[in-house]
Amino acid sequence: MNLVEAKQHVALKVISIEAGGRAQRAQRHMGMGRGAHRMSRHAMPRHMGSRRGLRIQKRLGDMGIREGTIIRKVSQQAFRGPIVVEIGRMRLAIGPFMATAIKVEELE
Amino acid sequence: MIRKILLMGNPNVGKSAIFTRLTSVRVIVSNYPGTTVEFTKGSIRLDGKKVEVIDAPGTYTLDPDSPAEKVAANLLKENDPKETVVVNIVDSTNLERNLNLTLELLSAGFPTIVVLNFWDETAHKGITIDVDRLGNLLNVKVITTVGITGKGIKELKENLNNAKPSDFNVPKEQRWNTIGNIVEEIQTVKHHHHTFLQGLEEASTHPVAGFPIALIVLFVSFYVIRFIGEGLIGWVFEPLFNNLWAPVLMKISTLLTHSGFWHNILIGNLVNGEIDFFQSFGILSTGLYIPIGAVLPYIFSFYLILSLLEDIGYLPRLAILLDRLMHQIGIHGMGFIPMLLGLGCNVPGALATRIMETRKERFISGTVMAIAVPCMAQIAMIFGLLGKYGFRGFAPLFGTLFIVWFVLGKIMAKFVRGESPEIFTEIPPYRFPYFTSLFKKVWMRVQWFLKEALPFVLLGVLLVNLLYTLGVIDFLSRIFGPGLSKILGLPPAAIAALLIGFLRKDVAVGMLAPLGLSMGQLVTASVVLTMYFPCVATFVVLTKELGFWDMLKSAIIMVVSAFFVGWILNLIY
Description:
The complex is a heterodimer of chains A (108) and B (573).
Chain A: E1 11-17, H1 27-30, H2 34-42, H3 45-62, E2 70-76, E3 83-87, E4 90-94, H4 96-101, E5 102-106
Chain B: E1 4-9, H1 15-22, E2 28-31, E3 38-46, E4 49-55, H2 67-78, E5 84-91, H3 95-107, E6 111-117, H4 119-124, E7 127-129, H5 131-138, E8 141-144, H6 153-159, E9 164-165, H7 175-186, E10 187-189, H8 196-204, H9 210-255, H10 261-266, H11 286-312, H12 315-328, H13 336-344, H14 346-352, H15 359-372, H16 376-386, H17 391-415, E11 424-427, H18 435-469, H19 472-488, H20 494-501, H21 505-512, H22 519-532, H23 536-546, H24 548-572
Parallel strand pairs in B: 1-4, 1-5, 5-6, 6-8
Antiparallel strand pairs in B: 2-3, 3-4, 6-9, 7-10
Helix pairs in contact in B: 3-7, 9-11, 11-16, 11-18, 13-14, 13-15, 14-23, 15-17, 15-23, 15-24, 16-21, 16-22, 17-22, 20-21, 21-22, 22-24, 23-24
């Protein structure tokens, strides 16, 4: 289950962070522009996907989210808007596509 | 020998409050060479010697993701570890995340002091931290402070001289594990109940309740801005100008025999034998009245409210609510910050495009901001002119600008090449603002306005008079006037306002006053003036931000869309 699908106000454990599956569709939003996206369809989708994944991992890591971190989903805006999560006492707004890359499991 | 003190830390850890506490009253805001993210410099006395204190932009890591974070990282690279002390400010209610930067800083080899700020909040939140233990583990001096009350600042000052580099150095891969171990060892957290403030925090990002709250906040803000602005004008500045300054000017006018070259330059035209601060257009009359009498009150009230919202921590929440709307124009929620700052003055708005990560986002946000967001100076003058029509006058003006903002943004989102990343930002807890540092910020912004705007306004008014006297304006009106009246439905004399608009938009709006325009013409002229080109100060900064070629593209978009929209407005009215 990824962060978009997860329940709100429940302790969630991050299992992995990877830009695969639905998150790959998000390349355009995660950093690949429309033009580049079109190009990547012919040239290097898989390669770009993994590089995206690394960048997501780094940015989340800088904020303290990595495998094993316990987080809590606080709110989610309508129409696939940003998601607010709580890590310790910090709150973070994460876009929906980055959130799909965060795989979690519910605790308790 | 300490020469410099660098305050480093994550965003929203109360660095500015500590900075304000540490330094003397005189503070200089400067732009970082090459880039334009602001950092603040001040100084303190240590053992009778003056030492520079630099408040670096907040960053999560020394391995930066955005240009603003790059500034912080470069500040560290450029300074000599022998002469610089790093004061690492840490949010003690958020130890785990903050320690990442702390460990990076310790590896950099500077003499370092770690400051645990917001120490009073740990008690409310049920957190206990073993400070001595933390100091021993990291081999560095750790001090607890409360920036708002000034607790711990004295101890910090006393320890600056004894700061030593730490030998604590962990490889990058093990950093988070180490942090986990440290936090486990020194910190205990008790469960605590939700407070009222936390309830409010949840509500203001709630997908449903958030919107009415945002509407109320924005409505109240604009109401208060207008109330303070008009109040200051009506009760302070107008009486001052009318009762004290006007008689002085009349004396000078009499001395100059009410006519002649110098009278025109200094006093301008008398309207019915008296000075009209909107219409006379002399350097001493309108030239002083526009920046001080009409615009300054609004600048002050705008920045007061903006700084308040900033310090409370509401803006990132607004960014989340607006994220979907902003994505329509190809930028994420934080992109509304340049727009909001642009409402005060387009120059800081253009500077704020820096917080966006990609070229595409910076191009779109810079361009739509310069086109569709009028600055407070211009708005104040428009209020002066259109005020008598009330809502009937303002609605078509701001409505048109909003439609232009949206449509142009939508088009650019489609056609500008490049990346549009998602929102990714920390949301600080609500905090009561620290008023000393709030007023310092407002004062710095007002001062900045006076320093930047006053010379340009005076120059603009002087130029207007010279161009009229030399017949340049008549000449240009004769050449461009007919076309202008045909497309925009404005009298040929309005060309002068468009010319001066490049220098100062508020002066340009002031030049419309004596033309006796109808409401429709005033709306059209105001819209075209806002859109067709940024003022020279914004133009320079935006060129620096976007680069020459992107600015050229942006400028073409501005001119074309301005005259197109002006033409449509002319057809409607």
